[in-house]
Amino acid sequence: MNMSDRVIAVIGLGYVGLPLAVEFGKRRRVIGFDVNRTRISELQAGHDHTLEVEPHELASAQHLEFSCDPQDLAAANTYIVTVPTPIDAHNRPDLTPLRRASEMIGSVLKRGDIVIYESTVYPGATEEDCAPVLEQASGLTFNTDFFCGYSPERINPGDKAHRLPDIAKVTSGSTAEVADIVDALYGSIITAGTYKAESIRVAEAAKVIENTQRDLNIALMNELAIIFNRLGIDTEAVLKAAGTKWNFQPFRPGLVGGHCIGVDPYYLTHKAESIGYHPEIILAGRRLNDGMGAYVASEMVKALLQKRIQVNGARVLIMGLTFKENCPDLRNTRVIDLIHELEKYSITVDVHDPWVDEEEARQEYGLDLIAAPKNDSYDGVVIAVAHDQFRAIGAAGARKFCKGNHVLADLKYVFAADESDLRL
After folding, report:
1. What is the pTM of this model?
2. Exposed e or buried b for every residue in 242-258, given b needs 16+ CB within 10 A?
3. Is it true that 3-207 and 220-423 share their CATH fold?
4. Is there a catalytic annotation at residue 260?
5. Which of the residues 68, 130, 148, 260 is marked catalytic?
6. In this structure, what is the dihedral angle of CA atoms 246, 247, 250, 251, given to the nearest 10 degrees?
7. What is the CATH code for 3-207?
8. For 288-340, what is each residue's pLDDT tens digit?
9. 220-423: CATH homologous superfamily?
């Protein structure tokens, strides 16, 4: 089959799938599929609530059509799966969305079709977990009748400088010929170039260690922040000084959430444990990062007590709920840990985030957001996310929300060191 004959179906139209469907849709027929009917209606109307794709970009994808009907997928011969791969309450990989997507594709799979996975998984998942589901649902044989590829997503939500075409793409295939096809397919839209990995397992492993490495680096910064706090040293000042060396990496401490960094390491550790190896460093980093919400809450309580503010019944405003700045993405935000920990001290917590959809916050976390915080109302304010809006009001603007005696905590170094009472 010629490259021009490839009709693509993108399964899952979130932060990863939609930009991909749009780029391919500028050049060839693409079926953008999502099980969420509201999402499909929104996209058909030319709007993306994730803010990853502007209306004019949606309009530029002239060959892109949207559907929530699985039967429409039968028109495709190349399937790209971009569904979520979360973890469960016990930090175990949850492949349910991936298996359901594979079952659905399998129901329309034909001889010669290629199924490419972009969702983050552990090494071996594509060929050992997904391919058998495709076989069972289709009655076809893997690597004889149909084939698979893996090209890990590298989307950075909210980043307008590094868009899909500007980020180098790792590709792979279940046979050498398929690997070439997959690489050429992505090469048609990725201006930054592609890197063809030796195997699907190599590509899967490469993806999962990208965020594991970042997670561990942030864990180191968090541990250093705890140490420097006990020593009475400002962490940002230390990092700025160390950053004058050419090879010092500019990581910063913080609450580690999101759909990748706080999740992907558990996929790797799960696979490691399944083969009899019990990882130590990776899990130590995860434990430390997962405990930062409780640490920050305890430091906030200490700061309130030092100012003789009664903790029981105090009111604290959390500014920022998303997992990162200037982005509406709430997935796996660890700000929620800080909120719950403060509430354990009988503190009344209000949350304000101009980037967040109020209904989504209510559905995901049971939170009713404050649209406009009132002045002179709070015993403390925590800058939890470095949104541009918070930078714009400055420390003086944040303090206006507070009573005369209060604590201003800046977890993200939004303000100068002498403008806040507590920093991470």
Report:
1. 0.91
2. eeeeeeeeebbbbbbbb
3. yes
4. yes
5. 260
6. -170
7. 3.40.50.720
8. 999 999 999 999 999 999 999 999 999 999 999 999 899 998 988 999 999 99
9. NAD(P)-binding Rossmann-like Domain (3.40.50.720)
